[in-house]
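Reproducibility note. Readers wishing to regenerate the assembly model reported in the main text can use the exact inputs given here. Chain order matters: entities are listed in the order in which they were concatenated for prediction.
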Amino acid sequence: MKVPLKWLEEFVSVDATVEQIARRLTVAGLEVENLERVRASFSGVVVARVLDVGKHPNADRLSLCQVDAGAAGRFSVVCGAPNVSRGMTAALATVGAKLGDEPELEAAVIRGIRSEGMLCSERELGLSQDHHGILSLPDDAPLGTPVADYLGLDDVVLDIAILANRGDALSILGVARDVAALFGVRLHAPRTRPLRVERHEGDGASSSFAVRMAAPEQCPRYAALKMTGVRVAPSPVWMRRRLELCGMRGLNNVVDATNYVMLEMGQPLHAFDLDRIAANTIVVRRAGSDREFVTLDNARRALEAGDLVIADPEKPLALAGVMGGLNSEVGLSTQTILLESAYFEPIAVAKTARRLGLRSEASYRFERGIDRAGQTAALMRVAELLKRYADARPEGAIADFEPRPAPVREIALDLNRMSALLGVETSAAEAKRRLVSLGASVRRGEARGTLKVIPPSWRSDLDEAADLAEEVARLSGLEEIPATLPARVFSYAPANREREFFRDTREVMLGAGFTEIDTLAFISAADNEKFAGIGHGEPLSVHNPLSEELREMRRSLAPGLLAALIFNLNRQATALHAFEIAKVFARVKGEVVERYHLGALSYGDYALSEIGRPGVKAGFFTLKGVAEAYLRALGVAERVRFKAPAPEHPLAFLHPGRSALILLSEEPIGYVGEFHPQDAMERGLAEQCTLCELDLQKLISYGLSPRPAIEPPPRFPAVRRDLALVLDREFPADMILKTIREIAPALLESVEVFDVYEGEAIAPGRKSVALALRYRATDRTLTDEEVNRTHAGLVEQARTRLGAELRQ
Amino acid sequence: MKEQLEEIRRRALDELTDGASDQQIEAVRVRVLGRSGELTEVMRGMREVPQAERPAIGQLVNQIKRELEERIEALKLRLRQGALERSLAEARLDVTLPGARVPRGRIHPVTQILERMLDIFVSMGFEVAMTRDVEDDFHNFEALNFPPDHPAREMQDTFLVGGGLLLRSHTSNGQIRVMEERKPPLAVVCPGRCYRRDELSVRASPMFTQIEGFMVDRVGRITMGHLKGVLIEFLRAFYGPETGVRFRSSYFPFTEPSAEVDIHCLLCKGAGCRVCKHTGWTEILGCGMIHPNVLRAVKLDPEEFQGFAFGFGVERPALLKLGVDDMRLFFENDLRFLAQFPSLAGGAA
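Running the prediction on these inputs yields the following structure tokens for the assembly.
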């Protein structure tokens, strides 16, 4: 909402600078976002009267005028305007004047005659594009006064962000009300000569037109006034200037006057050309079977049955509260108008305006809620302006139809309750003073320390005691509420499990050298299809996505990690080791499931060794190692198994032979594997890219399960014996370990794979797996003999059970 | 036999000169002392030696063995010593070359800032609760007293996923979710991801992080004064003890009274600059006393309970704090950006 200071000052005058006013308004909820200083685009132009108009002796189209500019003097001026006439009051640019970007005006000799200035058109003064003739000023304009001052062109415009509940502040008067209440000064509402009002509780007719109220739910009140003898012309300069400062454009004196009153009082008005309304009858109804309508902006609008329209018995005339129609527009030939001033329900207007994408100054105000009782006052005000600037005369009384009167809202305000809410004591007198300053009527309640408050008709947002508390706090200033800390017994609250868990997870990943990234949860349907994640479920798709690329909610973190990789490779990075902890989404049996995942990606050099020695490249085992380290850190490694996916169900985006499912207690919780070479090629990845993803939801509960008992370090040494078994190439290493653990004698402490060999010394299709076995007793140092005996027994069993050969 | 032994000894000692190399020494050791070396061969021939002479020969063998072993040990020590001295004299590293690069991860700046904020709230007695991202209209709007025609409920502002579900447009659903399950007194912060239909740009992102916080207790125990106290405490803990804080009346459907909180512009410290549009203030969060209708929606009697709530985005304060001004930096994951954050706790915050 743009508020020119001079206009505001017509209704309230405070002893404060505009900056102080802006600051106070801002803190009170009318946030002044900008103070714009506006100036006339000219200087040295004064009000002058044309005393005499004579013919220019050397030019037919020019006249020679004598003008009186009061204290500024009398001048002889050559003028080419067709409308210059004797007795006219005009704007005189004197010698030395600056008009826009033109050089300073000098005295000139025009066709042999000296001209001591120039009578200006609106265009020359930068007021409009009108250059048909010179600007005509009112006769009472004081001669010699600078035109900029007279027209009030130097001003400050406050640009105020109006909150959604403050429809009442969408007018100069509304803002002035808050200024008056905040500074404790009187408000001077616009004074108008009252017109007679005829009230109707339902449909009715005045002497010259009738109104049928067929939709009282959407339009509880409709007031109208007929005016005749209208002379449609441009409106006065000062009015157009104000409209312009408020962001509207001048059109003609009728439309401008309605807009002016809307800006001033917040009541949108509409003027119909009454001669174009059938049967002099207005019907306020829903669109029903009407299908379309052409609005003032010459656009064809599709109607829906529920849209509220203003119609005559034959056709719709306006989209109520949104925009008028071309078929009843006021034009140059208009002589009789019907002025509409109504209250339309916010939802009714909002629905139509939004559906049509048609936001007007009027719909904006109706949507936010206008003064429920401001209709007739606005009509009186606009009638006065039209009488003065369009020669219009009211015919008959204002007809005021109100089938559904506004309910009276009386709110009980308990002052103790208010203090308890705000944390500051407010006296009854203070509360009353604040509420009255807003326009509420306030009386003492029956109980001590209570008030009965009827909010003003323009504050539809005030519904209950908390709303009134806010008004009191707002007007007193929130800075008056002392900041204190609550006295509260803090009982122990357990730490949030997820947060703790993510923190631990991050710590492990950080330790492994991985960098955390953050990606959008939206991906394309194609990516979501390809990266189906672990939990399966159907993709969750967004009905109103920003783009096809962001159509679905991810089921896997892999696409985001890959996107981050490509982004960085395109910026000359050569390696990325990244992880993300975030939610994935899916529909499972119709229910939306969201689960936290950990995703990791490894590409390029993982660790660089010293200069001159090769670095470590990331690969399957790098990321598997990280996953193992993480699962060990959680204490669940024992229950986890890595399993090659079944050939018929590979993880489609991973290398079929270099990928594994991760199982926790035999249930899949993730995968690790090399990105499919085909996809890697398509994405231009030069090096191996490895991905890993874990469903954290299951791990969260495991991760917080009690840790196994801690034992002191062993006191006696361990003895190591190695064993090399030759088996089929496909035989999985973890089966060997599992078998050995099953047959393990009590003395076996651990068994590990330390090498795998395939090659010349081994038969084709076979491999040699080297194992390190550690033996230890808790109560003595083992003898060689004891170890040898135990080891030999184990080797024999292992060999038989696994069907392996011993490699010598 | 004795001569033979003496010959072995002499020959070995001749070869074990002071200048003998490692290989030469080892060759002698293997030839003479090895498992099938000369001395072992001699011992094998003992059967042919008369019984009486055997002890003496045995003694001699042991003596030679010991003598040679000592000599070898001494020579080897000398060699090692020599090698050590040579290496001390010759081996010089260019200590200015870079060390081996050990992989080192970073924590995303938004995480760092979010964690720092949560730490402050936890230290002030708040619990942390996380709730759903995919939410229904009731928890995201209706229970929060959004009127049915509120613009935020429109398709152009909120992502809809069908079945009456949407992607939450704020973390305020946490208020409802927690209060549905537990009765006051409550002091809770709900961090999480929110979604709004804004293109990813310098100023906005379709997905962002928010913290919702609220405190509810019996009437009079949690006031607007406490709201101010708690938030000022938090803001000064996060932005610094000197931070200027201002409460400005505002409007949110779910609070009454509502306020917006500004802090002094971090750049000009309140003097006014281009960044704060010459106001000296930066808008940082929204807050207020929980609206009676919100309490009613979770079946709490507003005559009995009251409390405050606040909410704010994390990315924008993060930008302010880091002194950068492009939201996209957080979601592009450019290593050149991420790598600037120390991988130490609280690095960015």
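We highlight two features of this model. The two ends of chain A are 92 Å apart (CA to CA). Chain A touches chain B through 93 residues (CB under 8 Å).
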